[in-house]
Fold this sequence. Notes:
Blueprint: H1 2-50, H2 56-61, E1 65-66, E2 76-79, E3 99-107, E4 110-122, E5 144-148, E6 151-156
Antiparallel strand pairs: 1-2, 2-3, 3-4, 4-6, 5-6
InterPro entries: TAT_signal
Amino acid sequence: xxxxxxxxxxxxxxxxxLGVGALSVGAFAAPAAAHRGALQRELxxxxxxxxxxxxxxxxxxDGYALGSPFVPGMGYHYVxxxxxxxxxxxxVDVTKPAALVYGKNxxxxxxxxxxxxxxxxxxxxxxxxxPLPDLFHGDGDDGMWGFAAGHWGLHAWIHVNNSAxxxxxxxxxxxxxxx
Length: 179
């Protein structure tokens, strides 16, 4: 009888420990899930605000102008200089990116532009050593130097999938690469 009782107490202790462990894991997982949820909401708001630019004529009407030739792995950049970030601590409206990135679909004898990404540009050169803009929840939006005339830039591939990640600078899809 004492063996059964010891086994029962052991099982209860095990179940209690398992429950506390599950709560602990949940406590650590909850903030990560909250950040992912916040990031997804931020990206959805940018997607909703910029989806009208699937038609490049609407982007041009709203002040975006062709700012680069076709860049392999990225595409054409249409830039609105009014949305370039001037200071790292500027209040930035992420629904108004400085650049829209278009790929090309060639077929039926014509080239059609495909909206793929938005890009945020920071008006500092690569010698700048201060803090960079922190635009989205999480740590995946570091951006990089050098693609926007030597300035910092952050792509967000929100209109097409990018197997390298939402904030990757390059996209391997054929529309964003030379054929």
